[in-house]
Amino acid sequence: MKRNLILTGFMGSGKSTLGLRLSYRLRIPVVDTDKRIEQRAGRSIPDIFAREGEEAFREKERACLEELQNEPGRKIISTGGGLPLRAENREALRRLGIVFYLRAKPETIWERLRHDTGRPLLQTEDPRRRIRELLAERSALYEAAADEIVDVDGREFDSILREIVRRYDQHGRRRGGTRRGKRGSA
Ligand code: S3P
Question: Which site from 58, 163, 165, 166 is most exposed, i.e. has the minimal number of CB atoms within 10 Å?
């Protein structure tokens, strides 16, 4: 059985949208860690950050991964942008399946999120700068956790989707080969 297909990347890189589209295309159920955390907590992410703090949210992310490890069946898993920050989460992601990092440039993120109010970490005076800083801090971690890196700047969702499906299939066919054949987009 093929393993889960996992999407990681910065806020606004397209994880949730692509997760849904991949689910439809591959007929595999999708789990979005942010949505699951909101359901379990009975409150929104901005609310969790405001009332319980970021660390409490990170703990919920860890617990969510643990839960997923104990669930049967193959899934598409779209993750919150900060989930791979913890080393234990990066290891859990690798155990769970094939990890795709949707890599986006800061300008792409900014264009997509400039009017967004649902991301607590970007509610600052200079969100554009914050995006650059966070991305600089995080890119190496996203890359370290990834089996596959997919560049998304300037691309239609359909083209990204086709690339992910193709690469995911290749993993399914590779038997006993090296798993971590990390590559950038062709
Ligand atoms: C976060 C990303 C968000 C959400 C939370 C924190 C982050 O998810 O989990 O606001 O630390 O990058 P998206 O990547 O789906 O926006």
Answer: 166
Residue 8 and residue 143: Cα distance in Å, rounded? Answer: 10
Going 186 to 172 to 156 to 130, the CA torsion angle's sign is negative
Residues with CB under 6 A from ligand 1: 11, 15-16, 34, 45, 80-82, 119-121
d(CA 179, CA 57): 31
Classify 71 as helix, strand or coil: coil
Measured distance between the N- and C-terminal CA atoms of the chain, rounded to whole angstroms: 27
Residue 121 contacts residue 134 (beta carbons within 8 Å): yes
Write out pLDDT tens, residues 18-59: 999 999 999 999 999 999 999 999 999 999 999 999 999 999
